[in-house]
Amino acid sequence: MMMMMMMMMMMMMMMMMMMMMMMMMMMMMVVVVVVVVVMMIMTTTTTTTTTTMMMMMMMMMMMMMMMMMMMMMMMMMMTVMMLLLMMMMMMMMMMRRRRRRRRRRRRMMMRIKSWA
């Protein structure tokens, strides 16, 4: 039963991670598309190259910032998941130990009764 619970928890964690990854990828794609569109519009409308260059630089900076933020978020999520897993493992160990102790005690009691 406990093993099943562990498996279920692991599956849930994996699913969550996958979902997060997918969301990040989608966000990145959208940002890229928007940037490209804006760039095209700017190039078509403006005659001067300086403004376009400035816009390009700005967009690049924004993209870099977004990437950094995403990476940070992912790292945080990973750390949280790891901590949760560790906690679960500790709980499992404690439960097993307690159960074993109880069983041993019961066996001892039975032995004493049989002797008496």
Question: What attributes does this structure have?
Answer:
single chain, 96% helix, rod-shaped, 116 residues, mainly alpha, 2 helices
Description:
It is a single chain. 96% of the residues lie in helices and 0% in strands. With 116 residues, it is mostly helical. Helix 1 runs antiparallel to helix 2.
Summed up:
The chain is an all-alpha fold and 116 residues long.
Describe the protein's topology.
Layout: H1 2-45, H2 49-115
- Name the shape in a single word: rod-shaped
Helix content: over 70%
Q: What structural class should be given to the helix and strand makeup? A: mainly alpha
Order of helices and strands: HH
The whole-number mean of residue pLDDT values reads 70
In DSSP terms (H or I, runs of 4 or more residues), the helix count works out at: 2
Number of strands: 0
List low-pLDDT spans. none
State Rg: 28 Å
Strand content bin: under 5%
Query: How is the biggest beta sheet arranged?
Result: none
Oligomer: single chain
Distance between the termini: 36 Å
